[in-house]
Amino acid sequence: MYVIGERINGMFKNIGNAILAKDKAPVQEMAEKQLSAGADALDINVGTRVPKSERIAAMEWLVDVVREVTKAPLSIDNPGPSTMRAGLARACVGGGTAIINSTTGRADKLDVFMKLAHEFDAGIVGLSIDENGVAPSADEKLEIGMRIIASAMENDVPIENVFLDPIILPLNVDQAAPGIVLETITQFKMLSDPAPHVVIGLSNLSQGASERPLINRTFLVMAMAAGLDTSIHDPLDDELTNAMVTAELLLNKTIYSNSYLSAYRKSKQME
Amino acid sequence: MTLLDTAKERWSGTISTLTIGADAAAGGTRKSVVTVGGAGGLPFAPFDGAPPHSIAVAMEVWDCPPEDWPRSLADALGDVVASPAEWAKACVEKWGADLICLRLASTHPDQGDASPQEAAATVRSVLEAVDVPLIIWGCDLPDKDNLVLSVCSQAAAGERCLLGTVTEDNYKTLVASCLADGHCLIGLSPIDINIAKQVNVLVTDMGFPLDRLVMYQTTGALGYGLEYTYSIQERGRLAALGNDRLMGVPVICMVGQEAWRAKEARATSEELPGWGDEGERGVYWEIATATALLQAGSDILVMRHPKAAQALKTTIDRLTTV
Q: What is d(CA A113, CA B117) in angstroms, rounded to the nearest whole number?
Protein backbone atom coordinates (compact mmCIF):
# COMPACT_ATOMS: atom_id res chain seq x y z
CA MET A 1 0.00 0.00 0.00
CA TYR A 2 1.12 3.48 -0.84
CA VAL A 3 0.25 5.72 2.10
CA ILE A 4 -0.16 9.47 1.74
CA GLY A 5 -0.08 11.04 5.21
CA GLU A 6 -2.98 13.46 5.69
CA ARG A 7 -1.82 15.38 8.74
CA ILE A 8 -0.17 18.45 7.19
CA ASN A 9 -3.45 20.21 6.63
CA GLY A 10 -4.51 23.66 7.83
CA MET A 11 -7.79 22.11 8.97
CA PHE A 12 -5.89 20.58 11.91
CA LYS A 13 -5.64 23.22 14.61
CA ASN A 14 -1.91 23.00 15.35
CA ILE A 15 -0.93 23.01 11.67
CA GLY A 16 -3.42 25.82 10.91
CA ASN A 17 -1.88 27.92 13.68
CA ALA A 18 1.62 27.14 12.48
CA ILE A 19 0.77 28.25 8.93
CA LEU A 20 -0.68 31.56 10.15
CA ALA A 21 2.27 32.18 12.49
CA LYS A 22 4.90 30.93 9.96
CA ASP A 23 6.13 28.55 12.65
CA LYS A 24 8.14 25.77 10.98
CA ALA A 25 8.61 23.42 13.92
CA PRO A 26 5.12 21.85 14.23
CA VAL A 27 4.97 21.28 10.45
CA GLN A 28 8.39 19.69 10.20
CA GLU A 29 7.78 17.58 13.27
CA MET A 30 4.52 16.30 11.75
CA ALA A 31 6.29 15.52 8.46
CA GLU A 32 8.93 13.45 10.21
CA LYS A 33 6.46 11.68 12.49
CA GLN A 34 4.29 10.58 9.58
CA LEU A 35 7.26 9.37 7.53
CA SER A 36 8.70 7.33 10.35
CA ALA A 37 5.25 5.81 10.95
CA GLY A 38 5.23 4.55 7.36
CA ALA A 39 3.92 7.35 5.12
CA ASP A 40 5.28 7.07 1.57
CA ALA A 41 4.18 10.59 0.61
CA LEU A 42 2.83 13.62 2.47
CA ASP A 43 -0.33 15.55 1.66
CA ILE A 44 0.11 19.33 1.84
CA ASN A 45 -3.03 21.43 2.36
CA VAL A 46 -2.98 25.04 3.57
CA GLY A 47 -6.59 24.85 4.78
CA THR A 48 -9.20 27.60 4.73
CA ARG A 49 -8.04 29.91 7.51
CA VAL A 50 -5.49 31.61 5.25
CA PRO A 51 -7.18 34.46 3.30
CA LYS A 52 -7.68 33.57 -0.36
CA SER A 53 -5.29 36.24 -1.59
CA GLU A 54 -2.46 34.73 0.49
CA ARG A 55 -2.96 31.07 -0.33
CA ILE A 56 -0.32 30.83 -3.04
CA ALA A 57 2.31 32.27 -0.72
CA ALA A 58 1.12 30.02 2.10
CA MET A 59 1.40 26.93 -0.11
CA GLU A 60 4.92 27.92 -1.18
CA TRP A 61 5.93 28.44 2.44
CA LEU A 62 4.42 25.13 3.55
CA VAL A 63 6.05 23.11 0.76
CA ASP A 64 9.45 24.76 1.35
CA VAL A 65 9.26 24.01 5.07
CA VAL A 66 8.48 20.33 4.45
CA ARG A 67 11.13 20.07 1.71
CA GLU A 68 13.73 21.18 4.27
CA VAL A 69 13.26 17.87 6.11
CA THR A 70 12.35 15.33 3.42
CA LYS A 71 12.67 14.37 -0.24
CA ALA A 72 9.50 12.23 -0.06
CA PRO A 73 6.83 12.87 -2.71
CA LEU A 74 4.44 15.67 -1.74
CA SER A 75 0.76 15.57 -2.58
CA ILE A 76 -0.24 19.16 -3.30
CA ASP A 77 -3.82 19.36 -2.08
CA ASN A 78 -5.64 22.31 -3.62
CA PRO A 79 -8.43 22.84 -6.17
CA GLY A 80 -6.98 26.00 -7.81
CA PRO A 81 -4.56 25.82 -10.75
CA SER A 82 -2.42 28.79 -9.65
CA THR A 83 -1.86 27.48 -6.15
CA MET A 84 -1.32 24.00 -7.59
CA ARG A 85 1.37 25.24 -10.00
CA ALA A 86 3.11 27.15 -7.20
CA GLY A 87 3.09 24.09 -4.93
CA LEU A 88 4.32 21.74 -7.66
CA ALA A 89 7.14 24.08 -8.65
CA ARG A 90 8.44 24.21 -5.08
CA ALA A 91 7.92 20.48 -4.41
CA CYS A 92 9.85 19.49 -7.55
CA VAL A 93 12.89 21.65 -6.82
CA GLY A 94 16.10 19.62 -6.87
CA GLY A 95 14.56 16.45 -8.31
CA GLY A 96 11.71 16.14 -5.81
CA THR A 97 8.45 14.54 -6.93
CA ALA A 98 4.85 15.53 -6.40
CA ILE A 99 1.27 14.39 -6.79
CA ILE A 100 -1.54 16.67 -7.93
CA ASN A 101 -4.41 16.33 -5.45
CA SER A 102 -6.69 16.68 -7.26
CA THR A 103 -8.58 17.19 -10.49
CA THR A 104 -12.18 16.32 -11.22
CA GLY A 105 -13.46 14.89 -14.47
CA ARG A 106 -14.83 18.27 -15.60
CA ALA A 107 -13.40 18.77 -19.07
CA ASP A 108 -11.98 22.29 -18.59
CA LYS A 109 -10.32 21.51 -15.25
CA LEU A 110 -9.08 18.07 -16.29
CA ASP A 111 -7.18 19.42 -19.26
CA VAL A 112 -5.45 22.15 -17.26
CA PHE A 113 -4.37 19.80 -14.44
CA MET A 114 -3.32 16.99 -16.77
CA LYS A 115 -1.02 19.44 -18.57
CA LEU A 116 0.48 20.34 -15.20
CA ALA A 117 0.99 16.61 -14.45
CA HIS A 118 2.86 16.28 -17.74
CA GLU A 119 4.93 19.42 -17.18
CA PHE A 120 6.07 18.38 -13.68
CA ASP A 121 6.10 14.61 -14.33
CA ALA A 122 3.77 14.44 -11.34
CA GLY A 123 1.19 11.93 -10.16
CA ILE A 124 -2.41 13.07 -10.44
CA VAL A 125 -5.48 12.18 -8.40
CA GLY A 126 -8.67 12.17 -10.50
CA LEU A 127 -11.92 12.39 -8.57
CA SER A 128 -15.22 10.82 -9.62
CA ILE A 129 -16.79 14.26 -9.96
CA ASP A 130 -17.99 15.96 -13.13
CA GLU A 131 -20.27 18.80 -14.19
CA ASN A 132 -23.10 17.12 -12.27
CA GLY A 133 -21.22 16.75 -8.97
CA VAL A 134 -20.15 13.51 -7.25
CA ALA A 135 -21.03 10.55 -9.44
CA PRO A 136 -23.44 8.41 -7.42
CA SER A 137 -23.25 5.05 -9.22
CA ALA A 138 -20.41 2.75 -10.18
CA ASP A 139 -21.25 3.20 -13.87
CA GLU A 140 -21.03 6.97 -13.66
CA LYS A 141 -17.80 6.82 -11.62
CA LEU A 142 -16.35 4.51 -14.23
CA GLU A 143 -17.33 6.80 -17.07
CA ILE A 144 -15.46 9.68 -15.39
CA GLY A 145 -12.51 7.35 -14.69
CA MET A 146 -12.32 6.52 -18.40
CA ARG A 147 -12.42 10.21 -19.26
CA ILE A 148 -9.50 10.85 -16.89
CA ILE A 149 -7.45 8.01 -18.35
CA ALA A 150 -8.15 9.22 -21.89
CA SER A 151 -7.00 12.68 -20.90
CA ALA A 152 -3.80 11.23 -19.39
CA MET A 153 -3.07 9.43 -22.64
CA GLU A 154 -3.73 12.56 -24.71
CA ASN A 155 -1.40 14.57 -22.52
CA ASP A 156 1.34 11.93 -22.41
CA VAL A 157 0.96 11.27 -18.69
CA PRO A 158 1.90 7.63 -17.92
CA ILE A 159 -0.98 5.60 -16.46
CA GLU A 160 1.33 4.68 -13.56
CA ASN A 161 1.03 8.34 -12.51
CA VAL A 162 -2.79 8.33 -12.45
CA PHE A 163 -4.65 7.77 -9.16
CA LEU A 164 -8.42 7.37 -9.60
CA ASP A 165 -10.45 8.35 -6.54
CA PRO A 166 -14.04 7.00 -6.44
CA ILE A 167 -14.89 9.48 -3.62
CA ILE A 168 -15.97 8.01 -0.34
CA LEU A 169 -18.82 9.93 1.29
CA PRO A 170 -19.47 9.96 5.04
CA LEU A 171 -21.15 6.80 6.21
CA ASN A 172 -23.90 8.75 7.95
CA VAL A 173 -24.74 10.62 4.71
CA ASP A 174 -25.18 7.62 2.43
CA GLN A 175 -24.83 4.14 3.80
CA ALA A 176 -25.06 2.53 0.37
CA ALA A 177 -22.04 4.47 -0.90
CA PRO A 178 -19.26 2.27 0.55
CA GLY A 179 -20.56 -0.78 -1.32
CA ILE A 180 -20.68 1.21 -4.55
CA VAL A 181 -17.11 2.39 -3.95
CA LEU A 182 -15.91 -1.20 -3.47
CA GLU A 183 -17.52 -2.21 -6.76
CA THR A 184 -15.95 0.81 -8.47
CA ILE A 185 -12.44 0.05 -7.14
CA THR A 186 -12.52 -3.42 -8.72
CA GLN A 187 -13.67 -2.00 -12.03
CA PHE A 188 -11.19 0.93 -12.02
CA LYS A 189 -8.43 -1.65 -11.91
CA MET A 190 -9.69 -3.14 -15.18
CA LEU A 191 -9.84 0.13 -17.09
CA SER A 192 -6.36 -0.12 -18.58
CA ASP A 193 -3.21 -2.19 -18.69
CA PRO A 194 -1.15 -1.23 -16.77
CA ALA A 195 -3.97 -0.43 -14.37
CA PRO A 196 -4.29 3.01 -12.82
CA HIS A 197 -3.73 3.37 -9.10
CA VAL A 198 -6.86 3.65 -7.00
CA VAL A 199 -6.87 5.96 -4.00
CA ILE A 200 -9.37 7.03 -1.37
CA GLY A 201 -9.42 9.83 1.18
CA LEU A 202 -10.22 7.39 3.95
CA SER A 203 -11.05 9.70 6.86
CA ASN A 204 -13.98 11.24 5.00
CA LEU A 205 -15.86 7.96 5.47
CA SER A 206 -16.21 8.41 9.21
CA GLN A 207 -16.86 12.18 9.35
CA GLY A 208 -19.38 12.88 12.08
CA ALA A 209 -19.61 9.27 13.19
CA SER A 210 -18.62 7.63 16.46
CA GLU A 211 -15.96 4.86 16.43
CA ARG A 212 -14.12 6.68 13.65
CA PRO A 213 -10.85 4.68 13.79
CA LEU A 214 -12.74 1.37 13.75
CA ILE A 215 -14.84 2.40 10.77
CA ASN A 216 -11.75 3.64 8.92
CA ARG A 217 -9.66 0.53 9.42
CA THR A 218 -12.50 -1.86 8.67
CA PHE A 219 -13.20 -0.16 5.36
CA LEU A 220 -9.52 0.16 4.45
CA VAL A 221 -9.13 -3.61 4.69
CA MET A 222 -12.29 -4.18 2.62
CA ALA A 223 -11.12 -1.71 -0.01
CA MET A 224 -7.68 -3.31 -0.19
CA ALA A 225 -9.32 -6.65 -0.89
CA ALA A 226 -11.18 -4.98 -3.78
CA GLY A 227 -7.92 -3.62 -5.25
CA LEU A 228 -7.21 -0.32 -3.51
CA ASP A 229 -3.46 0.37 -3.60
CA THR A 230 -3.18 3.91 -2.24
CA SER A 231 -4.78 5.64 0.72
CA ILE A 232 -4.73 9.17 2.06
CA HIS A 233 -5.06 8.71 5.82
CA ASP A 234 -3.49 9.24 9.22
CA PRO A 235 -0.38 7.05 9.41
CA LEU A 236 -0.07 7.86 13.12
CA ASP A 237 -3.14 5.68 13.80
CA ASP A 238 -1.26 2.53 14.84
CA GLU A 239 -4.29 0.25 14.78
CA LEU A 240 -5.08 1.40 11.24
CA THR A 241 -1.50 0.71 10.19
CA ASN A 242 -1.56 -2.73 11.84
CA ALA A 243 -4.80 -3.63 10.04
CA MET A 244 -3.33 -2.43 6.73
CA VAL A 245 -0.09 -4.39 7.16
CA THR A 246 -2.04 -7.51 8.13
CA ALA A 247 -4.32 -7.14 5.10
CA GLU A 248 -1.29 -6.93 2.81
CA LEU A 249 -0.08 -10.16 4.32
CA LEU A 250 -3.45 -11.87 3.81
CA LEU A 251 -3.50 -10.67 0.21
CA ASN A 252 -0.05 -12.29 -0.24
CA LYS A 253 1.58 -8.97 -1.08
CA THR A 254 4.24 -9.26 1.63
CA ILE A 255 6.00 -12.16 3.26
CA TYR A 256 4.92 -13.24 6.73
CA SER A 257 7.32 -13.39 9.64
CA ASN A 258 6.45 -13.61 13.33
CA SER A 259 7.56 -10.00 13.74
CA TYR A 260 5.77 -8.76 10.63
CA LEU A 261 4.37 -5.63 12.29
CA SER A 262 7.77 -4.45 13.44
CA ALA A 263 9.28 -5.62 10.12
CA TYR A 264 6.97 -3.16 8.30
CA ARG A 265 7.97 -0.26 10.53
CA LYS A 266 11.64 -1.20 10.39
CA SER A 267 11.63 -1.33 6.61
CA LYS A 268 9.90 2.05 6.43
CA GLN A 269 12.53 3.56 8.70
CA MET A 270 15.25 2.25 6.37
CA GLU A 271 13.89 4.29 3.47
CA MET B 1 6.95 3.00 -26.49
CA THR B 2 8.60 -0.07 -28.04
CA LEU B 3 7.46 -3.64 -27.52
CA LEU B 4 10.51 -4.23 -25.34
CA ASP B 5 9.55 -1.28 -23.15
CA THR B 6 6.10 -2.77 -22.75
CA ALA B 7 7.55 -6.12 -21.72
CA LYS B 8 9.88 -4.62 -19.13
CA GLU B 9 9.10 -5.18 -15.48
CA ARG B 10 9.25 -2.16 -13.23
CA TRP B 11 10.63 -3.03 -9.80
CA SER B 12 10.61 -0.76 -6.80
CA GLY B 13 13.14 -2.58 -4.60
CA THR B 14 16.79 -3.54 -4.88
CA ILE B 15 19.03 -6.12 -3.23
CA SER B 16 21.52 -4.60 -0.82
CA THR B 17 25.16 -4.39 -1.85
CA LEU B 18 27.58 -6.41 0.26
CA THR B 19 31.37 -6.34 0.18
CA ILE B 20 33.22 -9.30 1.65
CA GLY B 21 36.90 -8.86 2.47
CA ALA B 22 38.80 -5.77 3.52
CA ASP B 23 41.79 -4.49 1.57
CA ALA B 24 44.51 -2.29 3.05
CA ALA B 25 42.44 0.84 2.50
CA ALA B 26 39.61 -0.74 4.52
CA GLY B 27 41.92 -1.86 7.31
CA GLY B 28 42.43 -5.49 6.21
CA THR B 29 45.04 -7.45 4.29
CA ARG B 30 43.02 -8.80 1.31
CA LYS B 31 44.36 -8.06 -2.17
CA SER B 32 40.95 -8.70 -3.75
CA VAL B 33 37.49 -8.20 -2.32
CA VAL B 34 34.14 -9.55 -3.48
CA THR B 35 31.14 -7.28 -3.93
CA VAL B 36 27.77 -8.96 -4.50
CA GLY B 37 24.12 -7.88 -4.53
CA GLY B 38 22.78 -4.59 -5.82
CA ALA B 39 20.36 -6.21 -8.29
CA GLY B 40 17.35 -4.14 -9.28
CA GLY B 41 15.75 -6.86 -11.42
CA LEU B 42 15.53 -10.59 -11.94
CA PRO B 43 18.68 -12.55 -12.83
CA PHE B 44 20.07 -12.07 -16.33
CA ALA B 45 17.38 -9.54 -17.27
CA PRO B 46 19.53 -6.40 -17.33
CA PHE B 47 16.81 -4.47 -19.21
CA ASP B 48 14.52 -4.72 -16.15
CA GLY B 49 16.86 -3.08 -13.66
CA ALA B 50 20.43 -2.89 -12.42
CA PRO B 51 22.21 -6.25 -12.67
CA PRO B 52 24.05 -7.49 -9.57
CA HIS B 53 27.65 -6.42 -9.04
CA SER B 54 28.86 -9.98 -9.60
CA ILE B 55 27.94 -13.54 -8.80
CA ALA B 56 30.73 -14.95 -6.69
CA VAL B 57 32.06 -18.50 -6.96
CA ALA B 58 33.50 -19.75 -3.69
CA MET B 59 35.22 -23.08 -3.10
CA GLU B 60 34.98 -25.19 0.01
CA VAL B 61 38.08 -25.89 2.07
CA TRP B 62 37.85 -28.10 5.15
CA ASP B 63 40.04 -27.84 8.21
CA CYS B 64 40.45 -31.64 8.20
CA PRO B 65 40.61 -34.07 5.29
CA PRO B 66 37.05 -35.12 4.42
CA GLU B 67 36.65 -38.85 4.93
CA ASP B 68 33.64 -39.79 2.88
CA TRP B 69 33.97 -37.72 -0.27
CA PRO B 70 33.56 -39.84 -3.39
CA ARG B 71 36.58 -40.96 -5.34
CA SER B 72 36.05 -38.69 -8.33
CA LEU B 73 35.95 -35.60 -6.11
CA ALA B 74 38.81 -36.66 -3.83
CA ASP B 75 41.02 -37.49 -6.85
CA ALA B 76 40.39 -34.09 -8.42
CA LEU B 77 41.46 -32.29 -5.26
CA GLY B 78 44.47 -34.54 -4.61
CA ASP B 79 46.86 -34.20 -1.70
CA VAL B 80 46.09 -30.57 -0.88
CA VAL B 81 43.24 -31.65 1.37
CA ALA B 82 45.83 -32.51 4.03
CA SER B 83 46.47 -28.78 4.64
CA PRO B 84 43.73 -26.13 4.67
CA ALA B 85 46.28 -23.48 3.65
CA GLU B 86 47.52 -25.52 0.66
CA TRP B 87 43.95 -26.44 -0.31
CA ALA B 88 42.89 -22.79 -0.21
CA LYS B 89 45.94 -21.80 -2.29
CA ALA B 90 45.10 -24.36 -4.95
CA CYS B 91 41.47 -23.14 -5.07
CA VAL B 92 42.57 -19.58 -5.71
CA GLU B 93 45.71 -20.01 -7.80
CA LYS B 94 44.89 -23.15 -9.81
CA TRP B 95 41.10 -23.18 -9.93
CA GLY B 96 40.17 -19.49 -9.85
CA ALA B 97 37.92 -19.29 -6.76
CA ASP B 98 36.74 -15.75 -5.97
CA LEU B 99 36.69 -16.55 -2.27
CA ILE B 100 37.25 -19.44 0.10
CA CYS B 101 34.59 -21.06 2.27
CA LEU B 102 36.48 -22.50 5.24
CA ARG B 103 34.44 -25.24 6.93
CA LEU B 104 35.47 -25.81 10.54
CA ALA B 105 34.31 -29.43 10.42
CA SER B 106 36.91 -30.63 12.92
CA THR B 107 35.33 -28.60 15.70
CA HIS B 108 32.36 -30.99 15.71
CA PRO B 109 32.56 -33.36 18.69
CA ASP B 110 32.23 -36.34 16.33
CA GLN B 111 34.96 -35.06 14.00
CA GLY B 112 37.75 -34.43 16.50
CA ASP B 113 36.23 -31.74 18.71
CA ALA B 114 38.96 -29.21 17.88
CA SER B 115 39.19 -26.27 20.29
CA PRO B 116 38.24 -22.69 19.41
CA GLN B 117 41.95 -21.79 19.55
CA GLU B 118 42.87 -24.55 17.08
CA ALA B 119 40.12 -23.35 14.75
CA ALA B 120 41.34 -19.77 15.03
CA ALA B 121 44.88 -20.89 14.14
CA THR B 122 43.47 -22.54 11.00
CA VAL B 123 41.62 -19.36 10.10
CA ARG B 124 44.86 -17.36 10.45
CA SER B 125 46.79 -19.87 8.34
CA VAL B 126 44.26 -19.65 5.52
CA LEU B 127 44.13 -15.85 5.71
CA GLU B 128 47.92 -15.83 5.37
CA ALA B 129 47.98 -18.39 2.55
CA VAL B 130 45.53 -16.57 0.26
CA ASP B 131 44.61 -12.95 -0.29
CA VAL B 132 40.95 -13.43 -1.32
CA PRO B 133 38.06 -12.96 1.16
CA LEU B 134 37.06 -15.72 3.52
CA ILE B 135 33.77 -17.33 4.50
CA ILE B 136 34.14 -18.97 7.93
CA TRP B 137 31.56 -21.68 8.56
CA GLY B 138 31.18 -23.53 11.86
CA CYS B 139 30.19 -27.14 12.43
CA ASP B 140 26.45 -26.35 12.64
CA LEU B 141 26.18 -27.28 16.33
CA PRO B 142 24.88 -24.07 17.94
CA ASP B 143 26.65 -24.36 21.32
CA LYS B 144 30.00 -25.28 19.81
CA ASP B 145 29.68 -22.68 17.05
CA ASN B 146 29.10 -19.97 19.64
CA LEU B 147 32.40 -20.88 21.33
CA VAL B 148 34.41 -21.42 18.17
CA LEU B 149 33.15 -18.65 15.93
CA SER B 150 33.52 -15.88 18.49
CA VAL B 151 37.23 -16.75 18.85
CA CYS B 152 37.65 -17.07 15.07
CA SER B 153 35.87 -13.73 14.62
CA GLN B 154 38.47 -12.06 16.83
CA ALA B 155 41.32 -13.86 15.06
CA ALA B 156 40.09 -12.43 11.74
CA ALA B 157 39.07 -9.02 13.10
CA GLY B 158 39.14 -6.31 10.44
CA GLU B 159 39.23 -8.76 7.49
CA ARG B 160 35.48 -8.41 6.88
CA CYS B 161 34.88 -12.13 6.58
CA LEU B 162 31.45 -13.72 6.10
CA LEU B 163 30.61 -15.83 9.18
CA GLY B 164 27.90 -18.40 9.55
CA THR B 165 25.50 -19.43 10.49
CA VAL B 166 22.92 -17.84 12.77
CA THR B 167 19.39 -19.13 13.18
CA GLU B 168 16.11 -17.90 14.65
CA ASP B 169 17.01 -19.61 17.95
CA ASN B 170 20.73 -18.90 18.06
CA TYR B 171 22.01 -15.58 16.82
CA LYS B 172 22.93 -13.26 19.68
CA THR B 173 26.50 -14.44 20.32
CA LEU B 174 27.60 -14.42 16.70
CA VAL B 175 25.83 -11.15 15.90
CA ALA B 176 27.68 -9.48 18.78
CA SER B 177 31.02 -10.91 17.58
CA CYS B 178 30.49 -9.84 13.98
CA LEU B 179 29.44 -6.36 15.08
CA ALA B 180 32.54 -6.01 17.25
CA ASP B 181 34.99 -7.39 14.69
CA GLY B 182 33.50 -5.90 11.52
CA HIS B 183 32.38 -9.10 9.79
CA CYS B 184 29.36 -10.03 7.68
CA LEU B 185 26.87 -12.70 8.65
CA ILE B 186 24.91 -15.62 7.15
CA GLY B 187 21.35 -16.16 8.39
CA LEU B 188 20.14 -19.75 8.04
CA SER B 189 16.49 -20.69 7.56
CA PRO B 190 15.75 -24.21 6.39
CA ILE B 191 13.50 -23.83 3.31
CA ASP B 192 11.19 -21.45 5.13
CA ILE B 193 10.74 -17.98 3.76
CA ASN B 194 8.89 -16.73 6.84
CA ILE B 195 11.74 -17.76 9.11
CA ALA B 196 14.25 -16.24 6.67
CA LYS B 197 12.55 -12.90 7.10
CA GLN B 198 12.26 -13.38 10.86
CA VAL B 199 16.01 -14.06 11.18
CA ASN B 200 16.71 -10.82 9.32
CA VAL B 201 14.34 -8.94 11.64
CA LEU B 202 15.95 -10.41 14.79
CA VAL B 203 19.50 -9.79 13.64
CA THR B 204 18.82 -6.20 12.61
CA ASP B 205 16.95 -5.64 15.90
CA MET B 206 20.37 -6.04 17.53
CA GLY B 207 21.68 -3.16 15.47
CA PHE B 208 23.37 -5.32 12.84
CA PRO B 209 23.24 -3.55 9.45
CA LEU B 210 21.04 -5.22 6.84
CA ASP B 211 23.69 -4.60 4.20
CA ARG B 212 26.10 -6.96 5.96
CA LEU B 213 23.69 -9.90 5.87
CA VAL B 214 23.44 -12.90 3.55
CA MET B 215 20.55 -15.39 3.52
CA TYR B 216 21.10 -19.13 3.38
CA GLN B 217 17.78 -20.81 2.77
CA THR B 218 19.49 -24.20 2.54
CA THR B 219 20.18 -25.80 -0.80
CA GLY B 220 18.64 -28.82 -2.46
CA ALA B 221 20.57 -30.63 -5.19
CA LEU B 222 19.21 -31.62 -8.57
CA GLY B 223 16.79 -34.46 -7.88
CA TYR B 224 16.87 -33.81 -4.14
CA GLY B 225 14.69 -30.79 -3.53
CA LEU B 226 16.25 -28.34 -5.98
CA GLU B 227 12.79 -27.09 -6.94
CA TYR B 228 11.98 -26.21 -3.30
CA THR B 229 15.14 -24.15 -3.00
CA TYR B 230 14.48 -22.59 -6.38
CA SER B 231 10.93 -21.53 -5.56
CA ILE B 232 11.85 -20.19 -2.11
CA GLN B 233 14.71 -18.15 -3.51
CA GLU B 234 12.61 -16.88 -6.39
CA ARG B 235 9.76 -15.91 -4.08
CA GLY B 236 12.16 -14.11 -1.77
CA ARG B 237 13.75 -12.27 -4.67
CA LEU B 238 10.37 -11.21 -6.09
CA ALA B 239 9.34 -9.90 -2.66
CA ALA B 240 12.62 -8.00 -2.34
CA LEU B 241 12.22 -6.43 -5.77
CA GLY B 242 8.69 -5.49 -4.74
CA ASN B 243 10.36 -3.45 -1.99
CA ASP B 244 10.19 -5.88 0.94
CA ARG B 245 13.44 -4.50 2.32
CA LEU B 246 14.00 -7.22 4.86
CA MET B 247 14.14 -9.80 2.06
CA GLY B 248 16.48 -7.67 -0.04
CA VAL B 249 19.76 -9.28 0.94
CA PRO B 250 22.10 -11.48 -1.13
CA VAL B 251 21.68 -15.27 -1.09
CA ILE B 252 24.33 -17.98 -0.65
CA CYS B 253 23.97 -21.60 -1.89
CA MET B 254 25.95 -24.62 -0.72
CA VAL B 255 25.96 -26.30 -4.11
CA GLY B 256 28.93 -28.65 -3.75
CA GLN B 257 27.83 -29.94 -0.37
CA GLU B 258 24.41 -30.92 -1.66
CA ALA B 259 25.29 -32.08 -5.16
CA TRP B 260 27.89 -34.51 -3.84
CA ARG B 261 25.34 -36.08 -1.49
CA ALA B 262 23.32 -37.30 -4.46
CA LYS B 263 23.58 -40.95 -5.40
CA GLU B 264 23.92 -39.89 -9.02
CA ALA B 265 27.10 -37.98 -8.16
CA ARG B 266 28.57 -40.49 -5.71
CA ALA B 267 28.01 -43.90 -7.27
CA THR B 268 31.12 -45.48 -8.78
CA SER B 269 31.26 -46.86 -12.32
CA GLU B 270 31.57 -50.37 -10.84
CA GLU B 271 28.39 -49.95 -8.78
CA LEU B 272 26.31 -48.53 -11.61
CA PRO B 273 28.07 -49.09 -14.93
CA GLY B 274 25.07 -47.94 -16.97
CA TRP B 275 25.19 -44.42 -15.48
CA GLY B 276 28.32 -43.31 -17.28
CA ASP B 277 31.80 -42.26 -16.26
CA GLU B 278 31.90 -41.38 -12.57
CA GLY B 279 34.67 -38.87 -13.24
CA GLU B 280 32.23 -36.70 -15.18
CA ARG B 281 28.85 -37.58 -13.69
CA GLY B 282 29.31 -35.86 -10.33
CA VAL B 283 30.84 -32.78 -11.92
CA TYR B 284 27.83 -32.44 -14.20
CA TRP B 285 25.49 -32.92 -11.23
CA GLU B 286 27.19 -30.07 -9.42
CA ILE B 287 27.15 -27.82 -12.51
CA ALA B 288 23.48 -28.55 -13.25
CA THR B 289 22.50 -27.73 -9.66
CA ALA B 290 24.50 -24.51 -9.70
CA THR B 291 23.25 -23.21 -13.03
CA ALA B 292 19.62 -23.78 -12.05
CA LEU B 293 20.15 -21.85 -8.83
CA LEU B 294 21.76 -18.97 -10.77
CA GLN B 295 18.38 -18.40 -12.41
CA ALA B 296 16.57 -18.35 -9.05
CA GLY B 297 18.68 -15.43 -7.87
CA SER B 298 21.87 -16.56 -6.11
CA ASP B 299 24.76 -14.28 -5.26
CA ILE B 300 27.38 -16.62 -3.81
CA LEU B 301 27.66 -20.27 -4.87
CA VAL B 302 29.93 -22.54 -2.87
CA MET B 303 31.40 -25.33 -5.00
CA ARG B 304 33.56 -28.40 -4.37
CA HIS B 305 34.90 -29.85 -7.61
CA PRO B 306 37.47 -27.66 -9.40
CA LYS B 307 36.02 -28.42 -12.84
CA ALA B 308 32.49 -27.56 -11.66
CA ALA B 309 33.67 -24.27 -10.17
CA GLN B 310 35.48 -23.37 -13.40
CA ALA B 311 32.51 -24.35 -15.57
CA LEU B 312 30.22 -22.23 -13.38
CA LYS B 313 32.47 -19.21 -13.76
CA THR B 314 32.40 -19.66 -17.54
CA THR B 315 28.60 -19.95 -17.49
CA ILE B 316 28.24 -16.79 -15.42
CA ASP B 317 30.54 -14.94 -17.83
CA ARG B 318 28.49 -16.10 -20.81
CA LEU B 319 25.20 -15.12 -19.19
CA THR B 320 26.38 -11.71 -18.09
CA THR B 321 28.37 -10.68 -21.16
CA VAL B 322 25.94 -9.38 -23.70
A: 71
